[in-house]
Amino acid sequence: MAPRTILAASAAFALAFAGTGGATAKDKKKDESAAVKAARDFDKNPFPSTYRPYPSHPTLITGATLFDGKGGRIDNASILLRDGKVAAVGGALADMAVPADAVQIDGTGKFVTPGIIDVHSHLGVYPSPAVEAHSDGNEMTSPTTAQVWAEHSVWPQDPGFSRALANGGITSLEILPGSGNLIGGRSVVLKNVYSRTVQGMKFPGAPYSLKMACGENPKRVYGERKQMPSTRMGNFAVDRATWIKAKEYRAKREAGKLEERDLAMETLAGVLDGEIKVQNHCYRADEMAQVLDMAKEAGYKVSAFHHAVESYKIGDLLKANDVCSAVWADWWGFKMEAYDAVPENAGLLYKAGACVIIHSDDENGIQRLNQEAAKAQGAARRAGIAIPDEEVVRWITLNAAKAIGVDAQTGSLETGKMGDVVLWNGNPLSTYSRPEKVWIDGALLFDAADPKRRPVSDFELGQPGEGDVK
Fold first, then answer.
1. Pairing relation of β-strands 111-114 and 421-424?
2. Strands 116-121 and 170-175: what pairing?
3. Does the model's pTM come out above 0.70?
4. Can you give the CATH number for the domain in which 134 is found?
5. pLDDT in tens, 333-346
6. Which residue, 204, 170, 176, is CA-closest to 278?
7. Rounded to a whole number, what is the distance in angstroms from the first to the last CA of the chain?
């Protein structure tokens, strides 16, 4: 714009404003109200799920042993999938209205379970190939990064997704940020289907979770940088100070005094509102107890402690607070806070009446959560704690669904729930068993007898061993 044009425009603006004496108090109040409204009434779901189930066909499985995921077992069972849902389940085929065109599968000698769920995965954010260019799970630039969302790092082409489906029967999984920070950011729950976008994998209606961590990881990361926190007391001090700020932010929002958005505080306020769950990486029993006290002080609830190798020491406390423990079967000793792990951890938690989950935290472990659950069951049995198979299956199905907030939709074989189902060639708690067929929302997405029913990542197309799921 030429100088003369700028002057003319300025003069016109001044004349237009001269009659009003500048912005009135009413105008300012209107502007402030708009700012307050923008800070309060923001879109809480700016990256909505675009997931659409793959095409399904009515399917009837008969004669199998069925573990329903909620602790029940039905021998010689029948289950009908229709319109993407569990339409009927039970022992009497006569009670089922089976469509004439239904695909019928003889499950004699085989087993049926709900789809397996992993509550602690880093697929997509630490995908294969495991190279630095793909390392997107830890935003280790500040001890608290509540503003980051795992879904913005997920690479949908990670070949690990198909391995988890074919070898482990994984139908849903929670992708978490890493544990380098005290507050690592939001998780995302996915259906285990291939899609061009992460939104196409997002589990419809699943709540977000906030990943938190305590113990060695954050104090090591930031202690090496000579900044707070460098000790466990520093961990808690930073956490508490952050929650105090979040409560102040929330109070201002409720009072209509917010004038700008803060992405980190929005997430933390969502936790305080009960809209966002908390998944807390924590190993030692004493720290878990302290986190529960901190949660009460701040006004939030822990959904699950992850890794939790010392949960067996405080099973009664975890039960009383309705907090799940997502654990390994027998990982131990790889750092000091993992030293006092015992393979009977899950069994002792079960005996105490606490919520048990078997998780992976590993791209290979996710392919055999059934075997990990069986190992934990065996350790419990050797300690004199007998746990029925149908209860152990709950550790990788309904309990997992509960911890991430999707138990109303999946995790058990009940009429009206998602048709997420695995047909195993033997007892899923046997080392020799593996998925024969896997359905997600009633769609057959894996069939061990049909090479064309083995999803392959775009990344793998044309690569040696394409579609290999050994």
1. antiparallel
2. parallel
3. yes
4. 3.20.20.140
5. 999 999 999 999 99
6. 176
7. 67
